[in-house]
Amino acid sequence: MYRIWIISLAVLFFSATAAAEETKVDFNRDIRPILSDKCFHCHGPDANHREAELRLDDESSAKLDRDGYRVIDSETPAASELLARITSTDGDIRMPPADSGKSLTRDEIQLLERWIQEGAAWSRHWAYVTPVRAEPPAVKDRNWPRHWIDNFILARLESEGLAPADPADEVTLVRRLHFDLTGLPPTPETVKQFINSTDPRKYEQLVDELLDDDAFGERLAIYWLDLVRFADTVGYHGDQDQNISPYRDYVLDAFNDNLPFDQFTIEQLAGDLLPDPTVDQRIATGYNRLLQTSHEGGVQPKEYLAIYAADRIRNLSAVWMGATMGCCQCHDHKDDPYSTKDFYSLSAFFADIDEAKHFKVGSNSLPTARPPEIQVHSKRERQRLAELEQRIASLTNKIAAAPSDDLAAELAAIKSEHAALEKRKRKTMVTVAITPRTVRVLPRGNWLDDSGEVVTPAIPAFLGKLPSDSPNRLDLARWLTDAEQGVGLLTARVMANRFWYLCFGAGISRDLGDFGGQGEPPSHPELLDRLAHEFVESGWDTKHMMKTMVMSRTYRLSSQATPTLAERDPENRLFARQSRFRLVAEMIRDNALAVSGLLVRDYGGPSVKPYQPAGYYRHLNFPTRVYHHDTDSRQWRRGVYVHWQRQFLHPMLRAFDAPSREECTAQRTTSNTPLAALTLLNDPTFVEAAQALSQRILAGGGETEDARIDFAFQLCVSRSPDDVETKLIKELIASQPDEAAAWQMVARAMLNLQETNYRY
Amino acid sequence: MLNPHLLCRRTFLANSGLSLGAAAFGSLLARDGRADTTLVGAAGVRGLPHFAAKAKRVIFLCMAGGPSHLETFDYKPMLDEMNGQPMPNSFTAGQPIAQLQGQALKVQGHLTKFQQYGENGQTISDFLPYHAKMADDICIVRSLVTEQINHDPAHTFMNTGTAISGRPSMGAWINYGLGCEAEDLPGFVVLTSVGGRNPQPIASRQWSAGFLPSRFQGVEFQAAGDPVHYVGNPEGVSHAQQRQLVDTIQQLDRHRSGAIEDHETNARLAAYEMAFRMQTSVPELMDMSDETQETMDMYGARPGDGSFASNCLLARRLAERGVRFIHLYHRGWDHHGGLVKYMNTCCSLTDKPTWALIQDLKQRGLLDDTLVVWGGEFGRTPMFQGKGGAGRDHHIKGFSMWLAGGGVKGGISYGATDELGYHAVENVVHVRDLHATMLHLLGIQYDRFNVKFQGLDMRLTGVEHARVVKDILA
Fold first, then answer.
1. Contact between chains at A4 and B28 (C-beta distance less than 8 A)
2. C-alpha distances in angstroms, B168 versus A314, A353, A680, B207, B450?
3. Do A672 and B35 touch (CB under 8 A)?
4. What is the largest CA-CA distance in chain B?
5. Best residue in A675, A680, A687 to probe B by mutation, most B CBs within 10 Å?
């Protein structure tokens, strides 16, 4: 299916204008995807399945003199065996062979022909080439760009003969910024203030305010927790609770305090190996413990340690390298230059992680024990404790100097808060290094087979070698983020693409989890490279990256396609307009709670339990489970704090495509299902929110029906209704038996609207 | 109100003048992770089925926990002869072992008797008197092998073809490929029941859509409370009020979206319509009051009791309504000890309803195009385990399942294990062969049924070679 994308991209290039017609075929953009999909399976990196000693991923192999002929002959293109094979009508000769289930389209054959005629230039796969810091291209409309991002976007549009969409209106912009940066809707007051302001800096001020809001960390955490597969339960078999919520607080704080991303990486992978690690750095190493585990009776520890090792490499490679190394557990990668040995050598970095204790002490209690664990306060809790201690000290001194009943009472109150907070320490799993386990290459991934070679920690061979003779996790983490000596710029590119996705609804390379040969080349490679440099140059400053993107003119475009754009670029590959998309599951919840006034904005802490259908956990055992929803204000906290039961994720989150977090999710799917509709219509959380919203409308919406309808629209979609909308709502009201029922229905309707639940 | 025919994709396409290309575009968007704009209840992948299908739907009866093949379908005289003796090392050396790790391994003879039934003399144990009565309807496969020896990953393997999480379950694959015939029910329904020894947990991963769009995921129906989550109106809201609400939402959405060819808004409108219809169709499905007493008795079903018997009857009702994949789980077959006692429990709960289901499908003409599959996630060891009386440990190198209806030859046996029932040795059927055969019966060539994910052509049968077990096809 991705192939069709590629072709459509190529079509856009080659058929759009006369100028584009002359564009040279680009190996990475046009040819590699074809070879990777159709040929590499037998003529690629995997040495065990290679046919005819031919590697089409390797220029020298493809152009080798094979006793008088060459597969690709760049001097006499027409003599290339490849061309003869792909165009032959003889089934025995034609490539790809029929039994591969693959075939080349006419467009693909033409592209291959043109490429060979043009000299069959090879280039290294784009994702492994260090990003080049490109200067922004010149554009004809020099007034349009606000930022260099806009130069890259506009230059492409101009070369395609396309014009960008109109700017978005201010209401849309305010809502967009709020959702993208905080995951929450704006209040009607905020919208009004923005629209009425004449300050030319009002947009940037709003951006700064939102970046500074605690909700920013909550928004980014939703995304990061998907990547690293954070959950409250172990995942396999009994799916018992595990101690890990302080790790989530660490992630929230990291984004809110704008911890540089390289440091963020190092602390998670190897915080325990830093000199005198801080509590936060130790909490961060919970990352290495987030994988799924099992202590099912009958589990063979050796098998499961192999499963865990593979799980870690799948996640590490997906999160930081944008690579799908999972295949290499059993065989060399079919499309990318990762070998089985690379896979096991990489896993050897993690062989020192103490992870076997739970096989013995993992209990069928809630939470289960997965030592090593430590008792901690979160960063904010520690800050508060320190503050309180200071006040206790100063008050004690004051009282000693001049005793006073008032001061004594104040001291008592502070001491009591201190004592209560002191008790709120939580356990959290951390990484502790022990003597590394011996790691062998497992032939075909078979853990019973001890015949494979013993490997030591090493980075994938084609990416070089670490300077240390016996590198550890810390060296690995530094290599991932070192832009000079390591692959820092590659990592930066993977992440920059994801920040872009969060701001624009699609990556510059559309596949956020696979930068390999089967992923999709970026539509704007120079822009993506430049963003990678920006990330590194800014000191891995996440807030700076988000701000850079949202300040661009491109970000502020309307998501409405002009007829020309809809026809020429239906998939918005060129970012000539913004995207419209449904909010992610947690934000759907947060939005309903926010507009109804129920949302509780507490920060951090243990996971919370909203209403959930009775009996939903009935298939869980060891122990059997009864879900008790929270009965206090935790009921209305943000989705990012909801208890994440891997085997039975809360039905509301599930209905809106939140992943189980068993594996890395770089991009959630977005579905439109009846189950999602039923959830928004009937889930008690949303019914309660509708009730609260209706009361809010009645209390604050004025006396007339029109005023109240207007108020409801302002709360939910930040605008006034038009006549048709007012009429439809009035009809709904008229059909209801009484006023209370009527406004509850209106509130339910408002919470169910597409516009309420979408970001435009 | 929306035209109800909107739910049928062909009609929708015809009405809207959309080309197939546009529809394909919708699913492309879905793959790209943004919006799944294809309509609810949609048809499947273009080009499918690859050839004429024998079966239109599947009812998969999963005996969760792993029933002993040695007390159901696989009779080995040598096992009785060697009862109590050490298990020969030649069988077990280098083999994965679950709970018996590090223990002395002894042969455990059959804990029941076997007899032959039906025209071809199918061997069936005394635990299964009703299976005996339908010996001519079922094809017993005695040579299954799987790759996972613990429950959770073994279910995942049986359902998705791999133990790695995040892959689609077979029910999701089949609905994705063939689409859904039911207009007001999901295409993949899961029903569960419990009874037996130490019911093992079963994760919703087992009916996940994995990387396929969420609408293909299995929907679990409950016996108690709302049969489907949130299918009931909020308290105090009538059917008419709910209709009014859904109409208003749809009108407001359509008004606001304005654009005629807004696929995503259309998909959302259709989802609301189907949601509303499910609010009626699901309770109707669950309400068995239109069944005759004779039928109820045949199954031993009691409405709302959540039993396997009731679930079998619901399976027939779902099959009648065009649901593509109906997956029943009965949890209780993990017989590490007390095997006789718990076999009695499990069989008394499942034997007769299974027979009733086959008979009922047959008498309604549904068995011809409904494939029924029965089996656990693995079998049990020829070796003794004694957690509270004689029992058996998990076993993956040879076990039994059966298939019936939907293009499968009834009254035959296929494959065999060795003389102690340890290794499948004759006509070995790997789980992926079962998948390939199932797909074949549904008109799908397994190696041409791919979805690209993480750069790979993903298949239900995985990357290894699979085979369609042609010998059991009618």
1. yes
2. 18, 31, 25, 8, 12
3. yes
4. 79
5. A675
Chain B environment of A683 (Cβ under 8 Å): 229-230
Rounded Cα distance between B419 and B76, Å, is 6
Is B222 in CB contact (< 8 Å) with chain A? yes
Q: Which tokens go with A211?
A: 């970046």
Q: How far apart are CA B152 and CA B98, in angstroms?
A: 13
Cα–Cα dist B315/B329, whole Å: 12
Closest CA to A470 of A286, A325, A345: A345
Of residues A294, A671, A731, nearest to B215 (C-beta)? A671
Helix pair angle (B431-441, B170-178), 10° resolution: 30
Distance CA B338, CA B385 (A): 10
d(CA A635, CA A641): 10
Q: What is the DSSP letter of A161?
A: T
Sequence-distant (≥ 6) Cβ neighbours of residue A581 within 8 angstroms = A505, A670, A758, A759, B34, B35
| Residues in CB range of B37: below 8 A, 6 or more apart | A672, B26, B29, B30, B263, B264, B266, B267
How big is the A-B interface in CB pairs under 8 Å?
A: 255
- Give Cα separations from A746 to A613, A751, B231 (angstroms): 25, 9, 20
List, in sequence order, every beta strand (DSSP E) within A451-573. Answer: 454-455
What 3-state DSSP class applies to B259? coil
Are B101 and A300 in contact (CB < 8 Å)?
yes
Residue A462 · residue A345 · CB < 8 Å: no
CB contact under 8 A, B270 and A516: no
Q: What is the mean pLDDT of each run of 10 residues along chain A (760 residues)?
A: 41 41 76 88 84 87 89 89 90 87 89 90 88 96 97 97 97 98 98 98 98 98 98 96 98 98 98 98 98 92 95 97 89 86 97 96 95 98 98 96 94 97 97 97 92 96 94 98 97 98 96 83 95 98 98 97 90 95 97 98 98 94 96 98 97 95 92 93 98 97 97 98 98 96 98 97
The encoded tokens of residue A158 equal 């101009």
Q: Residue A116's closest CA among A61, A170, A71?
A: A71
Q: Please, which residues bridge with residue B123 across strands? A: B116
Please state, in angstroms and rounded to a whole number, the distance separating the CA atoms of residues A287 and A305: 17
Distance (Å, rounded) from C-alpha B371 to C-alpha B326? 10
Q: Which of A101, A513, A613 sits opposite B454 (nearest CB)?
A: A513
pTM (predicted TM-score): 0.88
Contact present, A424 and A438 (Cβ < 8 Å) = no
Beta bridge partners of B405: B371
Q: How far apart are the C-alpha atoms of A391 and B240, rounded to whole Å?
A: 61
**B96 at A interface, C-beta within 8 A:** yes
Q: Can you tell me whether residue B307 is helix, strand or coil?
A: coil
Amino acid (one-letter) located at B335: H
Q: Which of B399, B387, B412 is nearest to B335 (CA)?
A: B387
Distances in whole angstroms, Cα of residue A545 to Cα of each of A502, A531, B284: 11, 8, 54
Q: Which residue has the tokens 């032939």?
A: A443
Q: Rounded distance, CA B200 to CA A296, Å? A: 10
Q: Cα Rg for chain B, rounded, in angstroms?
A: 23
Q: Do A745 and B241 touch (CB under 8 A)?
A: yes
The counts of H helices and E strands in chain B are: 13, 17
Give yes or no for B18 touching A (CB within 8 A): no
Kind of pairing between the strands at B219-220 and B188-197: parallel
Looking at CA atoms only, how far is residue A620 from chain B in angstroms? 5
Q: Which of A296, A305, A302 is nearest to A239 (CA)?
A: A296
| B residues 157-216 closer than 8 Å to A (CB) | 163-166, 186, 192, 198-205, 208, 211, 213-215
